[in-house]
Amino acid sequence: MKFLVLWSLAIERLSEPMLKAVMRVPDYAKPLEASGKIEKRYHVVGKHGGAWIFKVESNEELERLLAMSPVYNYARYEVIPLADMESPTDVLRVEENRS
Which of 25, 45, 65, 82 makes the best surface tag, with the fewest CB within 10 Å? Predict the structure, then answer.
């Protein structure tokens, strides 16, 4: 299962513990990238946060990985499930078979 996770820091909660948590994020992400649990990490330009693509076995695994993030308590998350895009002809064939 793949998920796009958009996260942004709650800047109104800016504090020294939050800054320390942000500094730990790269160390948190490296082993997840090495294991394939995170396929890609992006910075969202002009925002305080990022866009990460997770590849996990279940919703529960994703929830666990997010909860383990150093910034979990300082961020807001939008989780978007992803699916492989089919070609238009495959989609049309499925619709024709339903008729």
Answer: 45
